[in-house]
Amino acid sequence: MASNTSLSALSLDDFEARTGSATSIIRTITGLYVRHEAAGVARTQIVELAHAAGVSVPAAQTAISRLIDRQVLEASQASSLHVPHAAQQMFERGARRIFTPRQMSGTDPWCLVAYSLPEALRSLRHQIRKHFLQLGGGMASAGLWIFPEYLRAEVTAVLSALGARDHATLFTAQQPHFPGTPQQAAGAWWDLQRLAALHEAFLENTAAVDAQDIAPPNAYRGYVTMIDSWRALPYLDPGLPEFMLPAQWPGAESRERFMALSEALQEPASAFARSLLDS
């Protein structure tokens, strides 16, 4: 699926949305539950799902309208909402990232991307930079990016969707030879301060989520809150090997919390969502 990613699907990614906002919560609910409903979902049911996650009814109504405008949701003649094809692609790609967070080992290979655009495609430079950052890429220098090798398919999909694949060469590298220390290189190529702040925000936002409370309504609200706070992280953070990261990096703790809460809450949360969708 990744190799068939369309530009319209890529344009729907939204990693700047404020975690916990009504729009962000309903976007998360759509990715978790609504997109799997082939017959569409009544707007009132989406409002009910949002309300159960802590969103007020007026805020939910406004957020749904915003997501329709952004083409994440689409209204049908039967007064129900469904997820259009491009948004389905976006959510499918997101599910692969969100639920399988990766961490490089010290011996894993890298993918280097070198590109040079002709003047006619100069306007693509900003788009490539935007999407490469959202894939977790590090900019080693102008026109040279570095990714974990396991992101190669997604990198190729972005270049193809943007019409830039013919102007880029991808290399597999086993071990970069850094000009200084590995930590200095990582700090120069990635915004580690921002990534650390995102991990710390996730830990703070989920501090009150109780993995032992599996009563379906509580599990549902906790699970949606957790996924909403987490979903951008496995995109923006490429999962650098430990030897390249600063001491006391919060990413390991946040990843462990995500896995523990997912294992405990996913099934009761899904059962509660199903009860609302079937009502």
From TrEMBL:
Domain annotation Transcriptional repressor PaaX-like central Cas2-like: ranges: 109-179
InterPro entries, per the entry: PaaX-like_central (IPR048846), PaaX_C (IPR013225), PaaX_trns_reg (IPR011965), WH-like_DNA-bd_sf (IPR036388)
Domain of life the protein comes from: Bacteria
Pfam families according to UniProt: PaaX_C, PaaX_M
Chain ranges of the Transcriptional repressor PaaX-like C-terminal domain: 190-274
Protein name in UniProt: PaaX-like transcriptional regulator
